[in-house]
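Page 42, continued from yesterday. The earlier attempt failed because a stray header line got pasted into the input along with the sequence. Redoing it now with the clean sequence only.
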Amino acid sequence: HGVGRVADENVDALRGALAAASDSGLAPSIGAAVDELLPQVDDYRTAAWAVLDAKAAGRPTEASETDFVAAFEALEASLPTVSAAVNERVAELDAEVHDVRSATARNSLLLAIAAIASFVVIAGLIARSIIRPVRRTAEVLRHVAERDLTARLEVTGSDELADMGRALNTALDNLSEALTAIGDHAATVSS
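This time it went through. Structure tokens are written below.
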């Protein structure tokens, strides 16, 4: 029965592959299709051995061969069920991959928009923190240009703009004191 051993090896290999597919957790529909196919694989093996046993015993094989052909055709007809289940699962996975890609693209776009918005807000805050003190300094200098030496900056903070504001206030204080002293000396000289 060397032919029988080869047939058994092939059937065992097929059963092993089908069992692995069923147990792999691929999808319930694939497992169900494989589970439906396994009894037909066993029927095919049984029918093949019936033909071999009949030949070995010298009995007529026509009935056994008819059963074998029927088992083979049933097995062959059932194979597309597994293929259809696999194709269905592949289509489901393709749809999932498409959904994940779409979500990733959407999230990336939202993240980019959020980053740009954050940049704009931060840049606006930085610009505002620079522009306000510069505008106040310009206003004090306008007063000085109009000969009003009483205007001063309200200085808070410890950055370079605050240092510039304090220096301007000190310069205006010194200029006011110098002009007052010149005025006092001029009054003393004229009297």
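Notes: Helices lie at 2-23, 28-57, 62-145, 160-190.
Reminder to self: strip header lines before submitting.
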